[in-house]
Amino acid sequence: GWHALAMTRPTMNSGSHQFGRIYPPDEAWLAKQEKEPILEPDLPIIDTHHHLWMRGGHAYLLDELLADLNTGHNVVATVFEECHSMYRADGPAEMRPVGETEFVAGIAAMSASGNYGKTKVAQGIVGAIDLTLGDRVEPVIEAQLRAGGGRFKGIRHSAGYDADPVIGNSGSVPPHLYEGSEFRTGLKRLAAHGLTFDAWCYHPQLAEVTALARAVPEATIVMCHVGGVLGYGPYANRKDEILKSWRASMAELAFCPNVSVKLGGMLNRGAALDFRDRPAPPNSADWAAAWRPYVEGCIELFGAARCNFESNFPVDKMGTGYATLWNAFKRITADCSADEKQALYSGTARRLYKLD
User: Fold this and answer.
1) How far is it, in rounded angstroms, from Cα 199 to Cα 224?
2) Average pLDDT over the chain, rounded to an integer
3) Which uninterrupted H or E stretch holds 206?
4) Integer distance in angstroms from the first to the last C-alpha of the chain?
5) Judging by DSSP bridges, how do beta strands 74-81 and 120-127 pair with one another?
6) Distance CA 328, CA 184 (A)
7) What is the DSSP letter of 89?
8) Given CA atoms 141, 144, 150, 155 in this order, what sign does their dihedral have?
9) Beta-carbon contacts of residue 197 (< 8 Å; ≥ 6 apart)
10) Quick one: residue 47, left, alpha or beta (phi over 0 = left, psi -120 to 50 = alpha)?
11) Largest CA distance in the chain
12) Which one-letter DSSP state was computed for residue 237?
């Protein structure tokens, strides 16, 4: 639900340039990031979460994505994540998100031609379906599957809600979305098609994901962004306390065998490192230090076979370049075994999103 957040061209320290809001990356500032050698350049990576869009004059389409993918890491495939992009302008409201899948399937077909390099861009598509339709979700699922041409792997329906307006909600989301009976009926329909459900909410809501996973045990659920840690607004300057409560909630969630976690997406909402006034973006050692407690916590609780890395680009491009981001992740996993790295960087993603 990034569509609800204003996209304006920022100047440093302007009102739009705050945690929780999405704004176009400052390319001139990013160019000042320290150039680092690529760590473990041969390790195959599936980037399980990136967007493609044209909004507020900011394009992040195939060329822009490829410029990031081709910075040195061995990204073999990607999974597109819904972001309210290219919805149909008319027709029934519940069918409009099919436009996003049609758009991304076209980009995926371009990539599959081999004319754009080795990475299989959008080999998996995680689209949008309103699960509160309940049983009426069926024709929408079928339309999405047709539009995806074999690439449609699942959906994300975000539930990020916080009473404090500073946090900003993921679209016009009511509280306790995942507890609704129609929502759960819709999720059962999704699971019956073998499609994955990407969950996204804030860390104080994690018990609602646990309840959902228990209520629909047949659903394959992937928790985005290490469980939605918040670190700004009313959550600022409470890092130790939040880490403790987040970890307790994630430990409970980890008891649900049908839940996996995406490692990434901590730069904006998590606000673990305030990069905004720095003369140059932090390097990978700085990012690794900021993100390590959450990434290591997830790997300890869920195991490598239930964790997969994500770039969350271009959102996280607000604070770092792509090469540095993956170097930061590789620093955190330096002591993992070869088998664990294989799972974390590609194997888990291949299984969860049924990528060939």
Assistant:
1) 6
2) 94
3) helix 206-215
4) 29
5) parallel
6) 37
7) S
8) negative
9) 154, 155, 156, 157, 187, 190, 191, 219, 220, 221, 222
10) beta
11) 53
12) T
Tens digits of residue pLDDT in 197-247:
999 999 999 999 999 999 999 999 999 999 999 999 999 999 999 999 999
For residue 218, what is the DSSP state? Answer: T
- DSSP one-letter code for 313: B
Residue 345 DSSP symbol: I
| DSSP for 147-187, written as a single string | HHTT-EEEEE------SSTTT--SSSPPTTGGG-HHHHHHH
Mean pLDDT of 3-22: 53
Phi, psi for residue 115 in degrees, rounded to 5: -80, -5
Strand order in the sheet with 120-127: 44-50, 74-81, 120-127, 152-156, 196-199, 220-223, 259-263, 307-309
> Would you say 154 and 126 are in contact if contact means Cβ atoms under 8 Å apart?
yes
Q: What are phi and psi of 220, to 5 degrees?
A: -90, 115
Which amino acid, residue 207?
A
**Whole-structure pTM value:** 0.95
Tokens of 215: 């209520």
* CB neighbour list of residue 87: distance below 8 Å, 6 or more residues apart: 96, 97, 99, 100
Rounded Cα distance, 340 and 332, in Å: 12
217, HSE (Cβ side, Cα atoms, 13 Å)? 4
- Pair 33, 281: CB distance under 8 Å: yes
> What phi-psi label fits residue 290: left (phi over 0), alpha (psi between -120 and 50 degrees) or beta?
alpha
Rg from Cα positions in the chain: 19
Task: Classify residue 349 as exposed, middle or buried by CB count within 10 Å of its CB (0-12, 13-18, 19+).
Answer: buried
